[in-house]
UniProtKB/TrEMBL annotation:
<keyword id="KW-0378">Hydrolase</keyword>
<dbReference type="GO" id="GO:0004065">
    <property type="term" value="F:arylsulfatase activity"/>
</dbReference>
<protein>
    <submittedName>
        <fullName>Sulfatase-like hydrolase/transferase</fullName>
    </submittedName>
</protein>
<dbReference type="InterPro" id="IPR000917">
    <property type="entry name" value="Sulfatase_N"/>
</dbReference>
<keyword id="KW-0808">Transferase</keyword>
<keyword id="KW-0732">Signal</keyword>
<dbReference type="GO" id="GO:0016740">
    <property type="term" value="F:transferase activity"/>
</dbReference>
<feature type="signal peptide">
    <location>
        <begin position="1"/>
        <end position="22"/>
    </location>
</feature>
<feature type="domain" description="Sulfatase N-terminal">
    <location>
        <begin position="27"/>
        <end position="345"/>
    </location>
</feature>
<comment type="similarity">
    <text>Belongs to the sulfatase family.</text>
</comment>
<dbReference type="InterPro" id="IPR024607">
    <property type="entry name" value="Sulfatase_CS"/>
</dbReference>
<dbReference type="InterPro" id="IPR050738">
    <property type="entry name" value="Sulfatase"/>
</dbReference>
<dbReference type="InterPro" id="IPR017850">
    <property type="entry name" value="Alkaline_phosphatase_core_sf"/>
</dbReference>
<dbReference type="Pfam" id="PF00884">
    <property type="entry name" value="Sulfatase"/>
</dbReference>
<dbReference type="GO" id="GO:0046872">
    <property type="term" value="F:metal ion binding"/>
</dbReference>
<keyword id="KW-0106">Calcium</keyword>
<keyword id="KW-0479">Metal-binding</keyword>
Protein backbone atom coordinates (compact mmCIF):
# COMPACT_ATOMS: atom_id res chain seq x y z
CA UNK A 1 0.00 0.00 0.00
CA UNK A 2 2.84 2.39 0.85
CA UNK A 3 4.54 1.74 -2.48
CA UNK A 4 1.25 2.22 -4.31
CA UNK A 5 0.73 5.61 -2.62
CA UNK A 6 4.30 6.60 -3.42
CA UNK A 7 3.74 5.80 -7.08
CA UNK A 8 0.54 7.86 -7.09
CA UNK A 9 2.40 10.81 -5.55
CA UNK A 10 5.19 10.52 -8.11
CA UNK A 11 2.66 10.51 -10.94
CA UNK A 12 0.90 13.56 -9.49
CA UNK A 13 4.22 15.41 -9.24
CA UNK A 14 4.98 14.57 -12.86
CA UNK A 15 1.50 15.68 -13.96
CA UNK A 16 2.12 19.14 -12.51
CA UNK A 17 5.55 19.36 -14.07
CA UNK A 18 7.51 18.86 -10.86
CA UNK A 19 10.95 17.39 -11.55
CA UNK A 20 11.50 14.27 -9.44
CA UNK A 21 14.66 12.32 -8.83
CA UNK A 22 15.00 8.62 -9.49
CA UNK A 23 14.66 6.35 -6.47
CA UNK A 24 17.91 4.61 -7.41
CA UNK A 25 21.22 5.48 -9.03
CA UNK A 26 21.39 2.35 -11.17
CA UNK A 27 20.11 3.28 -14.64
CA UNK A 28 16.91 1.96 -16.11
CA UNK A 29 17.35 0.41 -19.55
CA UNK A 30 14.85 0.33 -22.41
CA UNK A 31 15.83 -1.73 -25.44
CA UNK A 32 13.64 -0.92 -28.46
CA UNK A 33 13.72 -3.35 -31.37
CA UNK A 34 11.87 -2.81 -34.61
CA UNK A 35 11.15 -5.67 -36.99
CA UNK A 36 12.16 -5.91 -40.66
CA UNK A 37 12.84 -2.19 -41.08
CA UNK A 38 14.95 -1.05 -44.02
CA UNK A 39 18.40 0.35 -43.30
CA UNK A 40 17.55 3.63 -45.04
CA UNK A 41 13.98 4.00 -43.81
CA UNK A 42 14.54 6.56 -41.05
CA UNK A 43 15.19 10.27 -41.12
CA UNK A 44 18.38 9.83 -39.11
CA UNK A 45 19.52 7.33 -41.74
CA UNK A 46 18.98 9.86 -44.51
CA UNK A 47 15.45 9.11 -45.66
CA UNK A 48 13.57 12.00 -47.25
CA UNK A 49 10.37 9.94 -47.35
CA UNK A 50 9.88 8.43 -43.92
CA UNK A 51 8.74 10.61 -41.02
CA UNK A 52 10.54 9.61 -37.80
CA UNK A 53 10.95 12.75 -35.65
CA UNK A 54 11.19 10.89 -32.33
CA UNK A 55 13.95 8.56 -33.44
CA UNK A 56 15.66 11.41 -35.30
CA UNK A 57 15.81 13.38 -32.06
CA UNK A 58 17.00 10.30 -30.19
CA UNK A 59 19.83 10.04 -32.72
CA UNK A 60 20.86 13.63 -31.97
CA UNK A 61 21.16 12.72 -28.29
CA UNK A 62 22.82 9.34 -28.76
CA UNK A 63 25.90 7.52 -29.86
CA UNK A 64 25.22 6.15 -33.32
CA UNK A 65 26.91 3.08 -34.78
CA UNK A 66 27.04 3.16 -38.59
CA UNK A 67 28.63 -0.29 -38.67
CA UNK A 68 26.26 -2.21 -36.40
CA UNK A 69 25.39 -5.80 -37.25
CA UNK A 70 22.94 -8.49 -36.22
CA UNK A 71 24.15 -12.07 -35.77
CA UNK A 72 21.34 -13.55 -37.86
CA UNK A 73 19.70 -12.35 -41.07
CA UNK A 74 16.18 -13.43 -40.06
CA UNK A 75 14.04 -12.76 -36.99
CA UNK A 76 14.34 -15.82 -34.75
CA UNK A 77 18.10 -16.47 -34.94
CA UNK A 78 18.82 -12.74 -34.68
CA UNK A 79 16.76 -12.43 -31.50
CA UNK A 80 18.25 -15.60 -30.03
CA UNK A 81 21.72 -14.08 -30.37
CA UNK A 82 20.62 -10.72 -28.96
CA UNK A 83 18.96 -12.32 -25.94
CA UNK A 84 21.90 -14.58 -25.07
CA UNK A 85 24.91 -12.55 -26.24
CA UNK A 86 26.06 -15.73 -28.00
CA UNK A 87 26.17 -16.75 -31.62
CA UNK A 88 22.91 -18.63 -32.01
CA UNK A 89 24.67 -21.42 -33.92
CA UNK A 90 26.53 -22.32 -30.73
CA UNK A 91 23.29 -23.74 -29.38
CA UNK A 92 21.74 -24.85 -32.65
CA UNK A 93 19.25 -21.99 -33.25
CA UNK A 94 20.15 -21.57 -36.89
CA UNK A 95 16.74 -21.44 -38.58
CA UNK A 96 13.58 -19.38 -38.17
CA UNK A 97 10.91 -21.05 -36.06
CA UNK A 98 7.83 -20.44 -38.18
CA UNK A 99 4.71 -22.62 -38.47
CA UNK A 100 5.09 -25.52 -40.90
CA UNK A 101 8.76 -24.82 -41.61
CA UNK A 102 10.07 -27.16 -38.95
CA UNK A 103 8.38 -30.14 -40.55
CA UNK A 104 11.40 -30.11 -42.85
CA UNK A 105 13.65 -30.35 -39.82
CA UNK A 106 12.12 -33.31 -38.01
CA UNK A 107 10.60 -31.49 -35.07
CA UNK A 108 7.19 -30.18 -34.10
CA UNK A 109 6.85 -26.42 -34.57
CA UNK A 110 6.10 -25.69 -30.93
CA UNK A 111 9.18 -27.63 -29.76
CA UNK A 112 11.58 -25.31 -31.55
CA UNK A 113 12.69 -22.61 -29.16
CA UNK A 114 15.57 -21.02 -27.33
CA UNK A 115 17.28 -23.95 -25.52
CA UNK A 116 16.39 -24.01 -21.85
CA UNK A 117 19.99 -24.11 -20.64
CA UNK A 118 20.76 -20.75 -22.28
CA UNK A 119 20.65 -17.72 -19.98
CA UNK A 120 18.99 -14.63 -21.39
CA UNK A 121 19.63 -10.95 -20.87
CA UNK A 122 16.59 -11.08 -18.58
CA UNK A 123 18.30 -13.64 -16.35
CA UNK A 124 21.45 -11.56 -16.15
CA UNK A 125 19.62 -8.34 -15.35
CA UNK A 126 17.48 -10.07 -12.71
CA UNK A 127 20.69 -11.18 -11.00
CA UNK A 128 21.56 -7.48 -10.59
CA UNK A 129 18.22 -6.66 -8.93
CA UNK A 130 16.45 -5.39 -12.05
CA UNK A 131 12.76 -5.85 -12.72
CA UNK A 132 12.62 -7.23 -16.26
CA UNK A 133 9.90 -7.09 -18.88
CA UNK A 134 9.26 -7.85 -22.51
CA UNK A 135 6.47 -6.22 -24.46
CA UNK A 136 5.69 -7.29 -28.02
CA UNK A 137 7.00 -10.09 -30.20
CA UNK A 138 8.73 -13.08 -28.55
CA UNK A 139 9.46 -15.64 -31.32
CA UNK A 140 11.68 -17.75 -29.06
CA UNK A 141 9.43 -20.80 -28.87
CA UNK A 142 5.69 -21.39 -28.69
CA UNK A 143 5.60 -24.15 -26.09
CA UNK A 144 4.99 -23.18 -22.47
CA UNK A 145 8.52 -24.24 -21.48
CA UNK A 146 9.93 -21.41 -23.63
CA UNK A 147 7.62 -18.74 -22.22
CA UNK A 148 9.26 -15.36 -21.41
CA UNK A 149 8.22 -15.60 -17.76
CA UNK A 150 10.33 -18.76 -17.55
CA UNK A 151 13.29 -17.20 -19.38
CA UNK A 152 14.30 -14.32 -17.15
CA UNK A 153 11.42 -11.89 -17.54
CA UNK A 154 9.12 -10.77 -14.74
CA UNK A 155 6.50 -9.29 -17.06
CA UNK A 156 5.20 -10.22 -20.50
CA UNK A 157 2.61 -8.64 -22.72
CA UNK A 158 2.69 -9.68 -26.34
CA UNK A 159 2.50 -12.74 -28.57
CA UNK A 160 4.70 -15.80 -28.71
CA UNK A 161 4.91 -16.17 -32.48
CA UNK A 162 6.71 -14.32 -35.25
CA UNK A 163 3.94 -12.28 -36.88
CA UNK A 164 0.26 -11.49 -36.52
CA UNK A 165 -2.40 -8.96 -37.44
CA UNK A 166 -2.08 -5.46 -36.00
CA UNK A 167 -5.82 -5.51 -35.41
CA UNK A 168 -7.68 -7.51 -32.79
CA UNK A 169 -8.90 -10.95 -33.76
CA UNK A 170 -12.65 -11.22 -33.83
CA UNK A 171 -14.54 -14.49 -33.41
CA UNK A 172 -14.90 -14.60 -37.20
CA UNK A 173 -11.23 -14.10 -38.09
CA UNK A 174 -9.62 -15.58 -35.00
CA UNK A 175 -6.43 -17.37 -35.95
CA UNK A 176 -6.19 -21.02 -34.93
CA UNK A 177 -2.52 -20.72 -33.91
CA UNK A 178 -2.32 -20.00 -30.22
CA UNK A 179 1.10 -18.36 -30.56
CA UNK A 180 -0.54 -15.49 -32.44
CA UNK A 181 -2.92 -14.61 -29.60
CA UNK A 182 -2.11 -11.62 -27.43
CA UNK A 183 -1.12 -12.74 -23.95
CA UNK A 184 -0.69 -10.97 -20.63
CA UNK A 185 1.49 -12.85 -18.20
CA UNK A 186 1.22 -16.62 -18.57
CA UNK A 187 -1.68 -18.01 -20.63
CA UNK A 188 -3.94 -15.03 -19.99
CA UNK A 189 -5.01 -14.47 -23.57
CA UNK A 190 -6.73 -11.20 -24.40
CA UNK A 191 -7.11 -9.19 -27.57
CA UNK A 192 -6.42 -5.42 -27.38
CA UNK A 193 -9.06 -2.95 -28.41
CA UNK A 194 -6.56 -0.80 -30.33
CA UNK A 195 -3.90 -0.93 -33.04
CA UNK A 196 -1.15 -3.24 -31.85
CA UNK A 197 1.70 -0.71 -32.00
CA UNK A 198 -0.37 1.66 -29.85
CA UNK A 199 -1.17 -1.16 -27.40
CA UNK A 200 2.53 -1.93 -26.97
CA UNK A 201 3.22 1.76 -26.38
CA UNK A 202 0.55 2.05 -23.68
CA UNK A 203 1.78 -1.12 -21.98
CA UNK A 204 5.30 0.27 -21.95
CA UNK A 205 4.16 3.44 -20.24
CA UNK A 206 2.25 1.38 -17.68
CA UNK A 207 5.28 -0.84 -17.07
CA UNK A 208 7.39 2.25 -16.37
CA UNK A 209 4.77 3.61 -13.94
CA UNK A 210 4.61 0.27 -12.12
CA UNK A 211 8.37 0.06 -11.61
CA UNK A 212 9.50 3.47 -10.43
CA UNK A 213 10.92 2.14 -7.19
CA UNK A 214 13.42 -0.32 -8.69
CA UNK A 215 15.72 -0.24 -11.71
CA UNK A 216 14.02 -1.87 -14.67
CA UNK A 217 15.14 -3.50 -17.90
CA UNK A 218 12.46 -3.44 -20.59
CA UNK A 219 12.69 -5.12 -23.98
CA UNK A 220 10.16 -3.33 -26.19
CA UNK A 221 9.96 -5.72 -29.12
CA UNK A 222 7.78 -4.03 -31.75
CA UNK A 223 6.48 -6.21 -34.58
CA UNK A 224 6.36 -3.10 -36.76
CA UNK A 225 7.15 -3.02 -39.62
CA UNK A 226 6.89 -6.77 -40.26
CA UNK A 227 4.07 -8.01 -42.47
CA UNK A 228 1.08 -8.06 -42.58
CA UNK A 229 1.02 -4.50 -43.88
CA UNK A 230 -1.61 -3.09 -41.53
CA UNK A 231 -1.71 0.66 -40.99
CA UNK A 232 -4.07 3.18 -39.41
CA UNK A 233 -6.01 5.42 -41.78
CA UNK A 234 -4.79 8.61 -40.09
CA UNK A 235 -1.18 7.46 -40.51
CA UNK A 236 -1.70 6.58 -44.15
CA UNK A 237 -3.04 10.09 -44.69
CA UNK A 238 0.39 11.50 -43.74
CA UNK A 239 1.88 10.15 -46.98
CA UNK A 240 -0.38 11.24 -49.86
CA UNK A 241 2.33 10.92 -52.51
CA UNK A 242 3.14 7.28 -51.75
CA UNK A 243 1.30 4.19 -52.95
CA UNK A 244 0.92 0.50 -52.18
CA UNK A 245 3.08 -1.19 -49.59
CA UNK A 246 5.54 1.70 -49.57
CA UNK A 247 2.74 3.93 -48.30
CA UNK A 248 1.74 1.35 -45.70
CA UNK A 249 5.35 0.94 -44.61
CA UNK A 250 5.71 4.69 -44.12
CA UNK A 251 2.50 4.79 -42.08
CA UNK A 252 3.53 1.82 -39.93
CA UNK A 253 6.95 3.36 -39.32
CA UNK A 254 5.32 6.68 -38.40
CA UNK A 255 3.02 4.88 -35.95
CA UNK A 256 5.97 3.19 -34.28
CA UNK A 257 7.87 6.47 -34.07
CA UNK A 258 4.82 8.17 -32.54
CA UNK A 259 4.79 5.45 -29.89
CA UNK A 260 8.47 6.07 -29.16
CA UNK A 261 7.74 9.78 -28.73
CA UNK A 262 5.04 9.06 -26.15
CA UNK A 263 7.45 6.88 -24.20
CA UNK A 264 10.25 9.46 -24.33
CA UNK A 265 7.85 12.20 -23.22
CA UNK A 266 6.67 10.05 -20.33
CA UNK A 267 10.22 9.50 -19.11
CA UNK A 268 10.70 13.27 -19.09
CA UNK A 269 7.46 13.85 -17.17
CA UNK A 270 8.55 11.37 -14.52
CA UNK A 271 11.96 12.98 -14.24
CA UNK A 272 13.80 9.74 -14.98
CA UNK A 273 14.92 10.53 -18.51
CA UNK A 274 18.52 11.19 -17.42
CA UNK A 275 18.64 7.95 -15.51
CA UNK A 276 17.31 5.82 -18.35
CA UNK A 277 19.48 4.27 -21.05
CA UNK A 278 17.71 3.85 -24.40
CA UNK A 279 18.98 1.50 -27.08
CA UNK A 280 17.28 1.36 -30.46
CA UNK A 281 18.04 -1.10 -33.25
CA UNK A 282 16.41 -3.48 -35.75
CA UNK A 283 16.40 -7.28 -35.95
CA UNK A 284 17.67 -7.72 -39.53
CA UNK A 285 17.67 -6.05 -42.91
CA UNK A 286 14.45 -5.10 -44.64
CA UNK A 287 12.69 -7.71 -46.83
CA UNK A 288 12.34 -5.35 -49.77
CA UNK A 289 9.85 -7.50 -51.70
CA UNK A 290 7.60 -8.24 -48.73
CA UNK A 291 7.24 -4.76 -47.24
CA UNK A 292 8.83 -2.38 -49.79
CA UNK A 293 11.60 -1.46 -47.37
CA UNK A 294 14.77 0.28 -48.56
CA UNK A 295 18.24 -0.92 -47.53
CA UNK A 296 20.18 1.68 -49.55
CA UNK A 297 23.10 2.01 -50.03
CA UNK A 298 23.55 -1.60 -48.99
CA UNK A 299 23.24 -4.63 -51.22
CA UNK A 300 20.93 -7.52 -50.35
CA UNK A 301 17.87 -7.99 -48.17
CA UNK A 302 16.62 -9.87 -45.14
CA UNK A 303 17.82 -13.51 -45.12
CA UNK A 304 20.99 -12.71 -47.10
CA UNK A 305 24.50 -12.22 -45.74
CA UNK A 306 25.10 -9.15 -47.84
CA UNK A 307 25.21 -5.94 -45.83
CA UNK A 308 21.54 -5.25 -46.55
CA UNK A 309 20.58 -8.40 -44.65
CA UNK A 310 22.77 -7.95 -41.57
CA UNK A 311 23.71 -4.29 -41.07
CA UNK A 312 21.17 -2.32 -39.04
CA UNK A 313 20.56 1.14 -37.54
CA UNK A 314 21.79 1.30 -33.96
CA UNK A 315 21.49 4.10 -31.38
CA UNK A 316 22.48 4.18 -27.72
CA UNK A 317 21.50 7.05 -25.47
CA UNK A 318 23.58 7.08 -22.30
CA UNK A 319 23.01 9.39 -19.29
CA UNK A 320 26.28 11.26 -19.91
CA UNK A 321 25.73 11.81 -23.64
CA UNK A 322 23.95 15.04 -24.52
CA UNK A 323 24.68 15.33 -28.24
CA UNK A 324 25.28 12.92 -31.06
CA UNK A 325 28.52 11.03 -31.18
CA UNK A 326 29.54 8.44 -33.75
CA UNK A 327 31.39 5.23 -33.04
CA UNK A 328 32.87 4.04 -36.31
CA UNK A 329 34.07 0.52 -35.49
CA UNK A 330 31.95 -2.59 -36.23
CA UNK A 331 29.76 -3.77 -33.37
CA UNK A 332 27.07 -6.42 -33.01
CA UNK A 333 23.75 -6.87 -31.28
CA UNK A 334 25.66 -9.61 -29.44
CA UNK A 335 27.14 -6.70 -27.48
CA UNK A 336 23.81 -5.54 -26.03
CA UNK A 337 23.74 -8.11 -23.22
CA UNK A 338 27.26 -7.50 -21.84
CA UNK A 339 26.87 -3.74 -22.22
CA UNK A 340 23.56 -3.69 -20.34
CA UNK A 341 25.02 -6.02 -17.70
CA UNK A 342 27.91 -3.59 -17.20
CA UNK A 343 25.54 -0.62 -17.02
CA UNK A 344 23.70 -2.43 -14.24
CA UNK A 345 26.90 -2.95 -12.26
CA UNK A 346 27.74 -6.48 -13.41
CA UNK A 347 31.30 -7.67 -13.88
CA UNK A 348 32.64 -8.75 -17.28
CA UNK A 349 34.31 -11.84 -15.84
CA UNK A 350 30.88 -13.37 -15.17
CA UNK A 351 30.22 -13.44 -18.92
CA UNK A 352 32.87 -15.98 -19.86
CA UNK A 353 30.74 -17.80 -22.45
CA UNK A 354 29.48 -14.62 -24.12
CA UNK A 355 30.52 -13.76 -27.69
CA UNK A 356 29.46 -10.13 -27.33
CA UNK A 357 31.63 -7.55 -25.62
CA UNK A 358 30.94 -4.73 -23.19
CA UNK A 359 31.07 -1.61 -25.37
CA UNK A 360 31.47 0.90 -22.55
CA UNK A 361 35.31 0.86 -22.39
CA UNK A 362 35.44 1.47 -26.15
CA UNK A 363 32.94 4.31 -25.97
CA UNK A 364 34.76 5.88 -23.03
CA UNK A 365 38.17 5.63 -24.78
CA UNK A 366 39.42 3.25 -22.09
CA UNK A 367 40.08 0.66 -24.78
CA UNK A 368 41.55 1.82 -28.09
CA UNK A 369 41.27 -1.57 -29.81
CA UNK A 370 38.30 -2.64 -31.91
CA UNK A 371 35.53 -4.62 -30.17
CA UNK A 372 35.55 -7.48 -32.71
CA UNK A 373 38.48 -8.61 -34.82
CA UNK A 374 36.07 -10.82 -36.70
CA UNK A 375 32.30 -11.16 -36.99
CA UNK A 376 30.66 -14.30 -38.38
CA UNK A 377 27.38 -15.35 -39.98
CA UNK A 378 26.07 -18.75 -41.01
CA UNK A 379 22.88 -20.35 -42.24
CA UNK A 380 23.10 -23.92 -43.47
CA UNK A 381 25.80 -23.97 -46.18
CA UNK A 382 26.01 -20.20 -46.53
CA UNK A 383 28.46 -18.28 -44.42
CA UNK A 384 30.24 -14.96 -44.11
CA UNK A 385 33.01 -13.38 -42.08
CA UNK A 386 34.11 -9.80 -41.66
CA UNK A 387 37.74 -9.20 -40.63
CA UNK A 388 38.82 -5.58 -40.51
CA UNK A 389 37.42 -4.02 -43.68
CA UNK A 390 37.40 -7.33 -45.56
CA UNK A 391 34.12 -9.19 -46.03
CA UNK A 392 34.10 -12.79 -47.32
CA UNK A 393 30.97 -14.68 -48.38
CA UNK A 394 30.72 -18.42 -49.06
CA UNK A 395 27.89 -19.93 -51.09
CA UNK A 396 26.93 -23.57 -51.80
CA UNK A 397 26.05 -22.93 -55.43
CA UNK A 398 28.51 -20.33 -56.75
CA UNK A 399 32.04 -19.03 -56.18
CA UNK A 400 32.97 -17.16 -53.04
CA UNK A 401 32.95 -13.36 -52.96
CA UNK A 402 35.30 -10.86 -51.33
CA UNK A 403 34.75 -7.14 -50.70
CA UNK A 404 36.61 -4.22 -49.18
CA UNK A 405 33.85 -2.49 -47.21
CA UNK A 406 35.93 0.63 -46.62
CA UNK A 407 35.67 1.36 -50.35
CA UNK A 408 32.62 -0.63 -51.39
CA UNK A 409 29.78 -0.57 -48.87
CA UNK A 410 27.36 -1.68 -51.58
CA UNK A 411 29.37 -4.85 -52.32
CA UNK A 412 29.45 -4.27 -56.06
CA UNK A 413 33.13 -4.99 -56.77
CA UNK A 414 33.97 -8.64 -56.08
CA UNK A 415 37.73 -8.87 -55.41
CA UNK A 416 37.94 -12.65 -54.96
CA UNK A 417 39.81 -13.22 -58.22
CA UNK A 418 42.30 -10.43 -57.47
CA UNK A 419 43.11 -11.56 -53.90
CA UNK A 420 42.95 -15.38 -53.91
CA UNK A 421 45.21 -15.63 -50.84
CA UNK A 422 42.83 -13.42 -48.86
CA UNK A 423 39.94 -15.64 -49.96
CA UNK A 424 41.83 -18.70 -48.73
CA UNK A 425 42.69 -17.01 -45.44
CA UNK A 426 39.12 -15.95 -44.71
CA UNK A 427 37.66 -19.26 -45.83
CA UNK A 428 39.90 -20.86 -43.18
CA UNK A 429 38.66 -18.34 -40.58
CA UNK A 430 35.07 -19.28 -41.32
CA UNK A 431 35.85 -22.99 -41.29
CA UNK A 432 37.68 -22.75 -37.95
CA UNK A 433 34.76 -20.87 -36.41
CA UNK A 434 32.27 -23.44 -37.70
CA UNK A 435 34.14 -26.23 -35.91
CA UNK A 436 33.10 -24.59 -32.61
CA UNK A 437 29.37 -24.69 -33.41
CA UNK A 438 26.58 -27.13 -32.65
CA UNK A 439 24.41 -28.97 -35.10
CA UNK A 440 20.97 -27.36 -35.43
CA UNK A 441 18.87 -28.77 -32.59
CA UNK A 442 15.92 -29.66 -34.75
CA UNK A 443 18.09 -31.93 -36.91
CA UNK A 444 19.33 -34.02 -34.00
CA UNK A 445 16.51 -36.55 -34.21
CA UNK A 446 17.86 -37.60 -37.63
CA UNK A 447 14.46 -38.80 -38.86
CA UNK A 448 15.37 -37.90 -42.42
CA UNK A 449 18.46 -40.11 -42.36
CA UNK A 450 16.40 -43.01 -41.00
CA UNK A 451 13.68 -42.49 -43.60
CA UNK A 452 16.27 -42.32 -46.37
CA UNK A 453 17.84 -45.60 -45.28
CA UNK A 454 14.42 -47.25 -45.20
CA UNK A 455 13.78 -46.11 -48.78
CA UNK A 456 17.16 -47.42 -49.90
CA UNK A 457 16.50 -50.80 -48.29
CA UNK A 458 13.07 -50.96 -49.90
CA UNK A 459 14.59 -50.10 -53.29
CA UNK A 460 17.27 -52.82 -52.92
CA UNK A 461 14.70 -55.45 -52.03
CA UNK A 462 12.48 -54.49 -54.95
CA UNK A 463 15.44 -54.63 -57.33
CA UNK A 464 16.50 -58.07 -56.00
CA UNK A 465 13.01 -59.47 -56.46
Amino acid sequence: MVLKRLKILLLLFSFYGVEINAQHTTPNIILILSDDAGYADFGFQGSQVMCTPALDQLAKESISFPQAYVAGAVCGPSRAALLTGRYQQRFGFEENNVPGYMQNYCIEDDQMGLPLEERTIGNYMQSLGYTTGIIGKWHMGNDDVFHPLKRGFDFFYGFRGGARSYWSFSEENKNSREEDYMERGFRNFEEPDQYLTDAFTEETIQFIDDNLDTPFFLFLSFNAVHTPMDAKEEDLAQFPTLEGNRKKLAAMTYGMDRGCQKIFDHLKKLGIEKNTVIIYTNDNGGPTDANSSDNSPLSGTKASHYEGGIRVPFLMKLPNVSSQDIYQQPISTLDILPTCFALGGGEDKILETIDGVNLLPYLQNANSEIPHKELYWKKENRGAVRSGNWKFLRFPDRPAELYDLSKDIGETNNLAAIFPEKVKEMYQMLFNWETTLSRPRWQLQRKYEKAAMERIDKYKKAKTN
